[in-house]
Structure formats: structure tokens, C-alpha cells
Design goal:
By secondary structure, the protein is of the alpha+beta class. Helix content is about 35%, strand content about 15%. The protein is built from 25 helices and 33 strands. The strands form 13 sheets. The protein has a 5-stranded antiparallel beta sheet, with helices on both faces. Strand 19 and strand 20 form a beta hairpin. The N and C termini lie far apart (about 140 Å).
């Protein structure tokens, strides 16, 4: 076992002190480089000056460590989800290493480690003399010098941004030849001498074992023990320790993770593999064992037993990257995209990328294990591939009020490179392109922004407008007025779902029924651009990051801009989830958050801060939620859960090529998308798992949202703003006397739906409106009006007076034959006197209608 304290014996085997080493090293190295002038006083003095003027303080940067990303398991424990590294390293403390490992490395590399002052000058000068004679650049370095070299190389590599720079670091610290090689060796000595003044021997030895390479990307004794023998540094046997110690001389030659052979011989044959019992490594191990025996670090029996032990690797592969984040690969990649772009992880893109691979960060994510598993099960009803459609599907959930991403899934398995068949993909269907994804046309789920825009401009959801198919005029983002035809069955027109002809009605009903013609009618009162700006305010952009209110290049005065309100723009499901969550959060938008906590290698908190901000008033948010609750009894009825937790939602189908379901409780928002990844196949033409593809969202969303309800619960949504739900009165015109067609057009233009009743008796010409219900005046907007045409057979009851006989004569003269009398006794009556008729005078009835003459008499007979 190595001594734990540095001894007081001097350098150079004890015959000079540390204070004299500079002069001696300078003279000896000068003698090696320029032996012809070594004896001159000038040469000695110059060498001394050169050595003493070299930098002596060695900056030891933090070790390059893997970054680890964690998620919670179902029990709430942090479990490793993924890791990234340039150097596979597991740092260990002194007590975490079997002492035999220290003995092995000292015996093989620097047996005088605990007795020299940082430089084994005899070995160094011997190596330098040999190099000068042979032109080689062999070792002779102490462990302290090797540690210095590793630190310099690591410091250089930690700043490298590509493979060429890494190679340059290796060259500058290891492979320099000629005078540059001597200069480097001298500088190593200078650093080593100073390092031993400021650090203990144990610190240097442990630092060396933690930093040095053991083949490939394996660095440090902790990772080497795990990689080659599936154990930890504290549990290494004598044979294993000697094997690993022997590797540092030629790490890639002696490595054990290439059973086919780690190198080739002069004949080009693979050697040092399973077939030859790892002979090169075995010979080197036995050499180390022999040195340990000679130095008294192991007994003869221990030596014999270890030497007789064959090398039997037990390889542990420490995978890295998101491929190991089983079931959460796409979420992992999203987290990585945040690390690579958020300034919390570095000032530049290069610095952030380096921190991911070398920074030793610990990233704790927001993923909920139970919701993630439920979502994976739910999305599995959409196959990863079909021969008839390039079919994708995704689901994402965020926590209301925080923006924490709770689940993120899709139907196709993850692959960093994808494949030609399209059964796997690297593309995350839930996020924007900048985060490794791509968007989809949102369809009618985008109508929520028209709804919010309508409310923010002071309109009531119970205000009625003409949403019937027809010609509408809207203002585009370029300021141009666009004429839009809403009609069913025409390629050049906007149609309604299931060929609904539309109606004059309220915005509440338009939303419930997802009426396209109704939302185009809304765009006549609230512009397309303001609706797009509302969407952006709620965190939604085009999936490529461009603003929604900008006219795309090459489409100025495009006739299709009005379609924006119907969700033609490709957007990311995660953006839509955050927007719907802001409604459930009473108008507070929380940007999506995938990282709960991030720590650097020193434990400092570097968690990126996401913001929450008010984007709409509480009244608008509550009224929007109230309206969206109504959807669950309309187009969203197929996605109802029935667990008692209040939820709202909005369905969407774009051109039957994409289908969505977006919604939320007061705790969790869920968004599901299914559709064409590429191409324009019609979803309603295909079925899967018992669902028409255009409605397969109904087999996914309830399971995901239901699982969230079971875990998080949910409260009732706030009551809507009375000012935004009030009935709006409007003037109902009179259409009496108009032909039926003209009367219908007049009423519809005024915003009323019309029904035509059966023809009734009327004095007007047949087909002319003779009655309307309700009558003209102030009524609730959208009131249904019924008009009754005349049959042309009606006669107005004439006014009558005088005696009953006179009244009867007048009525018979007008053509009425069914006449009766009704008397009322009145003491003041001097003679029978007519008081009126029933029906009253002026009433239009048929000639066969019964007419009653009312009169008064002193005594009725």
C-alpha cells in the first residue's frame, strides 16, 4: 500500500533538495539538448534562466464529466434517463479505490513516487538522452509529470469544438518531437515541481487515476473498473488492478473491449483478443504483478494466484444519448434541445454543446412516469406504419399554471437517424422545428383564438350573426379585402363539417358545432391578423418559428389568408397545449418547461427560468372555458371521459388530413394529433383499432386526460363574465306584405334564421307574407322568425253597428254566412245595440269562418 503522506527524503534519490532542482534540471536538460556547449558557463546560466522563467502554476480545470438527465419513476425516485459524454468517467474518492490499485499503478509507472519531489530526474534524463540518440520521444515521466500532461491535455480538449481541435490538443501535449519535445518535457517538470509544493502525494495520485485514459472513451479508474470488469474501483482484485494499471502505457493496445482483437501485428493479423487470451495485455499485467512482488506490495502467494488467473473481461457498456431513455426518447431529445439553446447552459452554442458532453451537469426533468406510460399505451392504437398512408400521431400534456411537461409520446419509435421504411423517426411530432420537430395544420382547434379575439373585443358569445354558407368579406394581413365563399362540396369554397349549411346563431353554438362558415362570418367583424396575433400572444407560432401574422413569402394578396382562422398554418402541439393551459389557468400563460432543476458539476443551480405571464383577462379566460365546455356536448362528445372532473376541449380536422383534440381540466392540458406526416391522404378513408382515422383521437385523448384527472383531479371552471355572455338585442324588421323570397332574404341579411309556416288565410295575394312571429321590434339576436304566406282566400271582417239585424245584413253582404248572435243584458240599453264582432273588425278570415255578433239589450230573449 502506498504511503499516505509525503516523505521528507529529497529529490534525485535524496542527494539534493527541491531548491536545487531548478539549476540541476536546467543544466542536465541543456546538456542533453546541446551537449557541445553544456560545459560553458553561458550555457548553464542560459538553461537556468530558461527553466526558472517558465510558468510554474498549473491551472487544473474541472474534469470532463458526463452530463446525466433524470426523470422520476412511479415511486417518485430520480432515475437516470440518459447521459452524454466525450469521456466516460466516474470520479472516485481515495476511500473508493482498493489500495491494491494504488500499489499497482506506482509499481508499474513510478516506484519512487513517494520519495521524489515531482520529477524522477534520473529516469527523465535517461529518456531524454535516449531520445536524443535515437530520435524517439519515449517516456521517463513520473506520475506527477504524467498527471501534468493529462491536465494540460484535458484543459485543451475542454475548449475544443471539433475532432481536429481534439487531435491538436493531443499533439501539443504528447507527440511533439525534437526541440519542441524537450521544451515540453522541461515545462512538465517545472509544473510538476510546483504542483508537489501545493498538493499532497495522495491528491496527485488520486487525480492521476481519475484523469488518465484507459482506452477508447474510458477515463479514470472508476469507469475502467466498470467498463472492463463490471465492478467498482473499491472491489478490484489484484489481477484486475494490475491489468488496468498496465493499460496506461498503451491504452488502446491493451484495452479489453475488442474480443476480435485490439490491434494488429506486423503481418496485419488481429491480436490481443479473445482468441489469444488477450496476450499483449496479459504480458503487460504479469509485468506489473512482477513489479508489485519486487516492491513488496504483494506476497509470493498473491503473485502466483493472480498470475495464474486468465484475463476474463466482463464488459459493461455505458450507453449514452437519448436512445437509452426507453419510452421517453423524444422528450429526452427535447430536453437536449433546451440544453443546447438556453443561455443558462453556456454563453455560446459551442459552450452549451461542450457542457452537454463534458460539463458534468445533472438535469432533473418534469416527466410524470405514470402519465407517460398511459400516453404510450394510448397512442399505440395508431400503427407506426401503414402501406396506404404516412401516418403519424402524438400526444403531449402540460401542467396548468406551471407549464411543466408531464408526458410526450408518439406512435413511431425513436431512431437518431430514422430509416428508409419510415417505421422509426428522429422527428419529434410534438415540438417546433428548432427543437427537432415539425408542425401540423391545427384545423378547428385554432378557432379558440378567434373565440378569444371575439371576447377581447367586447363581443358576447351569445351574440348571433349570420353563419350560413354564402359570400363573406374579410380583411387580410396585407390589408386587402378578401371575398370568401362558404359552400359545401366545392373545391374553391370553404365547406362545413359533414356538409352543414350553417345557420344564424351565437358564437357559443358556432364553437360547439365547429361551424366554419360561422367563424368566417366572425372574421368579417374581427380581422384575420388580430386573431393570429392572439395566437402568438398565447405562445403559438408557425412550427418553423415565423410569426403567424406575417404573410408568408411569395403569397402577398394570397386568396387563402382567410383560411388562417380555420387553422391552415402548421403549428406544434406543445404550443397548443400551453395555449389551452393558459385558458384553464384563468388567463396565465406558462411557457413549456421540461427541466425542474439543473445543477453544474459543482452543485450550483443553473436551472433555466421559464416565465408565466397574464395573456388575457380572467373574464375572457373564464368565458372561453365556459364556451369550450359546451364543445364536449357537441363535436367533442366522442371524447367525453365521464369521471366527474370538469374538462373543456376543442376538436379539429384540417382537410381530413390532420385531426386534433385539445383540451384541459383546471390542472392538466392534453393535446392529441393524428395525421399525415407527408402527403395528403384522407383520414376518413381508413380505419384502425375500430376507429375511423379522422376520429381515432377519441380513443387517445380521453385515456390521457382521464389519467391526469385521476392523479391531479380538477376543479370547476370559474363562472363566465356576464358582460361576455349577455344576450344582444337587435331590430327585427317587418316583412308583412313582402313575397316570401324577399322576406327570407331581408330577415337573413338582418341576422335572423327564417322558417316558412303553412299558408294561412289572407287578403293579400297568395305567396305574400301575411303574418310573422315574433312581430317587428327589438328581439334577441339570432331569434328564429317564422313567416306565414297568404293563401289569397282571406276576407277582412267588416266593421258593423246598429241593430243585430243590420249587422247581420252587412256581414252577409261581405260574403259571410256562418253568423251567430251573442247578447249581454244591460239596464241602460233602450234598444238592442251591436257592440262588435268576434273575430274583430279587420281580421282576415275565410268566408266560411264563424262570426259572432255581440250586442247589448235590456232583456235578452
Amino acid at each position: 500500500m502506498p504511503q499516505h503522506k509525503r516523505t521528507s527524503t529529497g529529490v534525485l534519490g535524496g542527494f539534493v533538495g527541491v531548491l536545487g532542482l531548478s539549476a540541476i534540471a536546467g543544466i542536465l536538460v541543456t546538456a542533453t539538448v546541446t551537449p557541445a556547449i553544456a560545459v560553458s558557463g553561458y550555457a548553464a546560466s542560459s538553461a537556468l534562466d530558461t527553466f526558472d522563467n517558465m510558468p510554474s502554476f498549473l491551472q487544473i480545470d474541472p474534469l470532463m464529466l458526463p452530463t446525466e438527465i433524470y426523470r422520476k419513476d412511479s415511486a417518485g425516485n430520480d432515475v437516470l434517463m440518459a447521459q452524454f459524454y466525450d469521456q466516460n468517467r466516474i470520479p472516485v474518492t481515495w476511500d473508493q479505490v482498493n489500495p491494491v490499485m494504488f500499489d499497482a499503478i506506482i509499481a508499474s509507472e513510478d516506484k519512487k513516487f513517494y520519495t521524489h519531489g515531482g520529477v524522477d530526474l534520473v529516469g527523465t534524463v535517461s529518456a531524454l538522452v535516449g531520445n536524443a540518440a535515437s530520435g524517439s520521444n519515449r517516456g521517463g515521466s513520473s506520475i506527477t509529470q504524467q498527471y501534468v500532461k493529462n491536465v494540460l491535455q484535458q484543459n485543451c480538449e475542454s475548449e475544443a469544438t471539433n475532432d481536429e481541435q481534439v487531435k491538436a490538443c493531443f499533439t501539443s501535449t504528447t507527440v511533439a518531437t525534437g526541440s519542441a519535445g524537450y521544451q515540453r518535457k522541461l515545462q512538465e517538470m517545472r509544473y510538476a515541481i510546483q504542483l508537489e509544493k501545493q498538493s499532497s502525494k495522495d491528491e496527485i495520485l488520486l487525480g492521476y487515476l481519475n484523469i488518465t485514459n484507459f482506452g477508447g472513451t474510458v477515463y479514470g479508474i472508476g469507469a475502467a473498473a466498470q467498463r472492463y470488469f463490471s465492478t467498482d474501483a473499491a472491489s478490484l482484485t489484484i489481477a484486475q488492478a494490475a491489468t488496468i494499471a498496465g493499460m496506461v502505457q498503451e491504452p488502446n493496445t491493451y484495452r479489453l473491449d475488442r474480443p476480435e482483437g485490439s490491434t494488429t501485428n506486423s503481418a496485419g493479423e488481429a491480436v490481443n483478443g479473445e482468441a489469444d487470451g488477450y496476450k499483449l495485455t496479459l504480458d503487460r499485467r504479469n509485468y506489473v504483478l512482477g513489479r508489485m512482488l519486487d516492491d513488496g506490495k504483494i506476497s509470493q502467494a498473491e503473485y502466483d494466484e493472480a498470475k495464474a488467473t486468465p484475463i476474463t473481461p466482463a464488459i459493461t457498456t455505458r450507453d449514452q444519448g437519448c436512445k437509452i431513455a426507453s419510452g421517453a426518447e423524444f422528450f429526452c431529445e427535447y430536453v437536449v434541445s433546451i440544453i443546447k439553446t438556453d443561455p443558462s447552459f453556456g454563453d455560446t452554442a459551442e459552450a452549451r454543446a461542450a457542457n452537454l458532453r463534458r460539463g458534468g451537469m445533472k438535469i432533473y426533468t418534469t416527466l410524470n412516469a405514470d402519465l407517460q406510460q398511459t400516453a404510450l399505451d394510448a397512442i399505440s392504437i395508431v400503427p407506426a406504419s401503414r402501406p396506404d398512408i404516412d401516418l403519424g400521431a402524438s400526444g403531449v400534456q402540460v401542467e396548468v399554471g406551471t407549464g411543466r411537461i408531464l408526458s410526450m409520446v408518439q406512435n413511431r419509435p425513436y431512431s437518431a437517424l430514422g430509416d428508409d421504411s419510415g417505421t422509426v423517426t428522429p422527428v419529434n411530432y410534438n415540438v417546433r422545428e428548432a427543437n427537432g420537430g415539425g408542425g401540423h395544420s391545427a384545423g378547428s382547434t385554432y378557432k379558440v383564438f378567434s373565440l378569444i379575439n371575439w371576447l377581447e373585443q367586447g363581443h358576447s358569445v351569445n351574440e348571433a350573426i349570420n353563419g350560413r354558407v354564402g359570400v363573406k368579406k374579410v380583411i387580410n394581413c396585407d390589408g386587402q379585402i378578401q371575398t370568401v365563399t362558404t359552400a359545401n362540396g366545392r373545391d374553391d369554397a370553404v365547406g362545413n363539417f359533414e356538409n352543414n349549411s350553417g345557420y344564424t346563431g351565437t358564437i357559443y353554438n358556432f364553437t360547439r358545432d365547429s361551424l366554419n362558415s360561422g367563424f368566417i362570418a366572425m372574421a368579417e367583424k374581427i380581422s384575420v391578423c388580430t386573431t393570429n396575433q392572439v395566437a402568438m400572444k398565447l405562445g403559438v407560432m408557425r412550427s418553423d418559428g415565423t410569426p403567424l401574422d406575417q404573410v408568408p413569402p411569395g403569397s402577398l394578396n394570397s386568396p387563402n389568408q382567410a383560411y388562417n382562422v380555420l387553422g391552415d398554418a402548421a403549428v406544434a402541439p406543445l404550443d397548443m397545449a400551453a395555449a389551452y393551459a393558459s385558458i384553464a389557468a384563468n388567463g396565465i400563460l406558462c411557457r413549456p418547461k421540461s427541466i425542474d432543476m439543473a445543477l453544474d458539476m459543482n452543485g450550483n443551480d443553473i436551472t433555466p427560468q421559464t416565465s408565466c405571464e397574464r395573456v388575457m383577462s380572467e373574464g375572457v379566460a373564464a368565458t372561453a372555458a365556459y364556451t369550450l365546455v359546451g364543445v364536449m356536448s357537441g363535436t367533442g362528445s366522442g371524447a367525453r371521459i365521464g369521471d366527474g372532473t370538469p374538462v373543456f376541449g376543442k376538436t379539429g380536422i384540417h382537410e381530413y388530413e390532420q385531426t386534433w383534440m385539445d383540451g384541459a381540466s383546471t390542472k392538466v392540458a392534453t393535446v392529441v394529433w393524428v395525421g399525415n406526416v407527408k402527403g395528403h391522404a384522407k383520414l376518413d378513408q381508413f380505419r384502425n383499432s375500430g376507429y375511423q382515422l379522422s376520429r381515432i383521437r377519441n380513443g387517445i385523448w380521453p385515456k390521457m386526460q382521464g389519467a391526469a384527472n385521476a392523479i391531479y383531479g380538477g376543479d370547476a371552471f370559474p363562472a363566465p363574465d356576464p358582460n361576455l355572455t349577455k344576450q344582444v338585442l337587435t331590430t327585427l324588421p317587418s316583412v308583412i306584405g313582402m313575397p316570401v323570397d324577399q322576406a327570407q332574404q331581408t330577415l337573413q341579411a338582418a341576422g335572423f334564421d327564417v322558417t316558412v309556416g303553412d299558408a294561412v288565410d289572407g287578403a293579400e295575394a297568395a305567396g305574400t307574407v301575411t303574418r310573422q312571429e315574433p312581430g317587428a321590434g327589438r328581439v334577441a339576436a339570432g331569434t328564429m322568425v317564422t313567416i306565414y304566406p297568404s293563401n289569397g282566400q282571406g276576407v277582412a271582417v267588416p266593421g258593423v253597428s246598429g241593430t243585430p239585424l243590420e249587422a247581420q245584413a252587412a256581414l252577409r253582404g261581405a260574403g259571410f254566412g256562418n253568423i251567430t248572435l251573442q247578447c249581454t243584458e244591460q239596464d241602460s240599453a233602450t234598444s238592442p245595440t251591436v257592440t262588435g264582432t268576434n273575430p274583430a273588425a279587420g281580421t282576415v278570415v275565410s268566408r266560411s269562418a264563424p262570426i259572432t255578433i255581440t250586442y247589448q239589450a235590456k232583456k235578452c230573449l
